Amino acid sequence: MAKVMPVYVEEALNGTFDLDLESAGAYWQILFMLWSTDGVLKDDPILISRRLGITTRPWNRIRDSLIESGKIYIEDGFIFNDKLKVTLKFVQNKSETSRKSAEKRWSKSLKQKKTVDANAHAIKDTKIKDNKYNGEFDNWYSLYPRRVGRGQAIKAYIKVRDSGTTQEALINGVKAYANSTADTEPKFIKHPQTWLNSEGWLDEYVSQQSRELDIPGDLAPVNLKAM
Fold it and tell me: H or E stretch including 75?
């Protein structure tokens, strides 16, 4: 339903020139009510007179004069105005056309955004997949005790390798770390990216086997009779 009613001032003045002030005011109120109900208004004297703030007798007189002057007409118990129907249809069509145009622009914009995002991801993925450390990273990653966040780990690995750290140092470091966390709950094991960023290959680790050797075993029972 169109809410904004266009009014052509000169045409409006000419169209009500032959009406007295009371009839002209009532006529405009009827037009406003017709516009708010999509051009269909029930010919109910009680309801309309209440809306106009008058009794039914003056409204019936005004109604008859508006019908006689061709401002409104009654059909099947409803009040109509031909010029308003044409204007309403025009505004509704224009509004629908604008809505479809806006949807079309939005759809086009959304498709363009998806294309840009897809291209950006493709470039990003290409940079990750086609880096010069691909093979050795996969080897290192397969040894890591907690394989999560692969994409971030690749970036960290490239950064570390580009800084001059050797592949051998990283392999030896991750093996030592994996051995030291053999019985550790996964949630307490660092993410690959964190381990790389914190230079985990430089840390000293105690192997699980060394820990077990350090744990004192049960003492053999003493034979008091032999003493």
Answer: strand 73-75
Q: Is the pLDDT of residue 121 over 70?
A: no
DSSP 190: P
Q: Which of 184, 183, 128, 126 is nearest to 157 (CA)?
A: 128
Sequence-distant (6+) residues with CB within 8 A of 12 are none
What's the mean pLDDT in 130-142?
84
What length does the chain have? 227
First and final C-alpha spacing in the chain: 110
- Find out whether 80 and 88 touch, Cβ atoms under 8 Å: no
Q: Assign 227 a pLDDT band (cuts: 50, 70, 90).
A: very low
Query: Range of 23's domain?
Result: 9-86
Classify strands 41-42 and 78-80 as parallel, antiparallel or unpaired.
antiparallel
For residues 139 and 79, state if they share a domain.
Answer: no
27 found inside a domain: yes
| Nearest to 197, CA basis, from 140, 139, 154, 136 | 154
Q: 68, 86, 104: which is the final residue of a domain?
A: 86
Do residues 183 and 210 make contact, with C-beta atoms less than 8 angstroms apart? no
Q: Which of 169, 139, 176 is nearest to 154 (CA)?
A: 139
Instruction: Show the tokens assigned to 142.
Output: 């397969």
